[in-house]
Structures are given as structure tokens and as C-alpha cells.
Amino acid sequence: METTKRNLWIGIGVVIAVVAIVALIGIIALRPEPELLTGEVEANEYRVSNKVPGRVDTFYVHESQHVKAGDTLVYISSPEVDAKLTQAKAARAAASAQSSKAANGARQQQIASAYEMWQKAKAGVDIAKKSYDRVQALYDKNVVSAQKRDEAEAQYKAAVATANAAKEQYEMAREGAQNEDKMAANALVMQASGAVSEVEAYMNDRFLVAPCDGEVAEIYPKRSELVGTGSPVMSILDMSDVWFTFSVREDLLQGLSVGQEVEVRIPALGDQTYKAKVTSVRAMASYATWRATKTNGQYDVKSFDIKIVPVGEIPGLRPGMTVILQQR
pLDDT for 14-58, tens place per residue? Predict the structure, then answer.
């Protein structure tokens, strides 16, 4: 009898243990696994473009090479710019010559010639004055007609006008160009000098330099190929400005607010985790990010672009690597 009771209790215990084990296994099996969010490493990229159309002459760097800000990257050959510089310098020389001419005034020979013309006109005035006085005296004695007296007077006045005009010509030759003419000539020199400076700036732009410290990611044209204005020649990665991007559904945004610290794992660098901080949460374009949370479409969720910046330097990190963020 005692044996039967003992066997009964043992059986009941076994049943209870089996039920407990099955329940535990069911709980473990049905427990939802933590969500894994997959993102990508990105870095700030600068595209180096040229302002002067020309032909790629010389590359001073190669892909994957580290460069410093201001390093010369490539030289663009442009004979057209050389020709324009020659034209601009010739125009500046011509404008300078005109300005010098205006500033120096007439030559000494021209001044002397104008003076002699004035003296000749003055001599003509003296002769015309004497002739007029004689005719006037004869007219007073009724020897000559009034017409003769009027003709002599007109010749005298004409001589006086000619002398005055000759004197003005002499004064103009001695004083030189007007201030307005000098200012106009100087303005032409400044305009031509500005054109030279502009072309010289283009000459300097034939040498493309690195905008920042970084790494040459890609070189687009080949040597001796033609490149137009604004064409990208190469891209520089700023490895000091690196971040992670994730596309996350809004029902998984919990714990990903701006300023929140998270831990990420980069498979390419091993199983080690790294601290990072959420810096931006931005809604993505709605036309591609809506999805139904249930098959019957009771409500939809939207996706957000999450930007996470690593806290501290991560050795070996490269743009394009996969980043895994595990939801707690």
C-alpha cells in the first residue's frame, strides 16, 4: 500500500516537472527576439571641381592617399586662359599709354606750334587795327565811303577773334587734357587691370587643391581627358566627420531620441561594441516609407532616418561598413 502511494506521488511529481519544463520551453520559444537595426557607415564627402575648362595634365595624388588641406591635387592645362591673359595685358598696356598721354599733356613741339600761331594772329590784329584806323580817318574826312570803313572794321574784328582763338588753343596745349579726360583714362587702366587680375585668378584655379584633411576616395577623369567648368575631378572623404545612418520604423523608435546614447556593433571590426549618440531623427519621404503593421492594414507606420555619431574614434572604420544596433 505504501509502495503504491509512493509511486503515485512520484508519478505526479514527474508529470508536474514535465509540464513545468514544457511551459518553460514554450516561454523561451515564444519570447520575441530583440530587433536588430542595420545601418551603414557614412562620411562627409567633398567633390573637387574645376572652374577652368581644360585638359587634365597632371595628377599629384592617387586614390586612397591621405592629403592635407591645401595640398595640390591636379593641374588642368588651359591654353585658352594663357591667350586671354596675353590679351588682357595688352589691353592694360594700351590703357596705360592713353592715361600717360592724358597726364603728360601735349608735346613741347605742339605747344610751341600753338604759341607761334597765336603770335601770328596777334600780328594780324596789329595790321588790321592800323588799316582800320587809317580808313576811319579818311572816312571822317569824307574821302572813303562808309562801306570801305565797315569792311576795314570787320577785318579788324575778325583778326581779333582769330587771335583769341589761337590764344585759347595755346592755353589748351600748355595745360594738357581736362581732368575729366584724365579720370576717364585712369578708369580705363583700372578696368584693364581688373581684367588681368580676373584672368590671373583663373590661372591659379588651374591647380586644384584639397579643401580639407582627408582621403582621396575616387578620381573620375583620366589623364589628358577634357573637363568642363564645374565638372567633378575627384572626391575627398573627411574621415574626421563620420556617422551611422539607419532607416527605422516609427514603432521601433523607442529609446532612439536625440541625445540618447546607444551601443552599436560593426561586424567588419569584430564583436566589440561601441558607444554612439543619436544626433538626428528625421522623417523620410512618405511615398516610400509607409507600410502596414498588420495584414488587414488597420494602421500604417512611417520610417525615419536616424543619424548616430560615434563617441570617440573607432580605428579601422570605413564608409560603407555595416552597423548593427540592437534594440533593448
Answer: 667 766 776 666 555 555 555 678 899 999 999 999 888 888 999
* SS3 annotation, the chain: CHHHHHHHHHHHHHHHHHHHHHHHHHHHHHCCCCCEEEEEEEEEEEEEECCCCEEEEEECCCCCCEECCCCEEEEEECHHHHHHHHHHHHHHHHHHHHHHHHHHCCCHHHHHHHHHHHHHHHHHHHHHHHHHHHHHHHHHCCCCCHHHHHHHHHHHHHHHHHHHHHHHHHHHHHHCCCHHHHHHHHHHHHHHHHHHHHHHHHHHCCEEECCCCEEEEEECCCCCCEECCCCEEEEEEEEEEEEEEEEEEHHHCCCCCCCCEEEEECHHHCCCEEEEEEEEEEECCHHHCCEECCCCCCCEECEEEEEEEECCCCCCCCCCCEEEEECC
Buried (b) or exposed (e) across 85-103, using 16+ Cβ within 10 A? Answer: beebbebbeebbebbebbe
Q: What is the mean pLDDT of the chain?
A: 78
pLDDT digits (tens, 9 = 90+) for 105-146: 556 666 677 767 767 777 777 877 887 778 777 777 777 777
| Contact partners, residue 139, CB within 8 Å, separation at least 6 | 145, 146, 148, 149
Q: What type of residue sits at position 53?
A: P
pLDDT at 290: 47
Handedness of CA 156, 159, 161, 163 (dihedral sign): negative
Surface-to-core class of residue 244, CB atoms within 10 Å of its CB (0-12 exposed, 13-18 middle, 19+ buried): buried
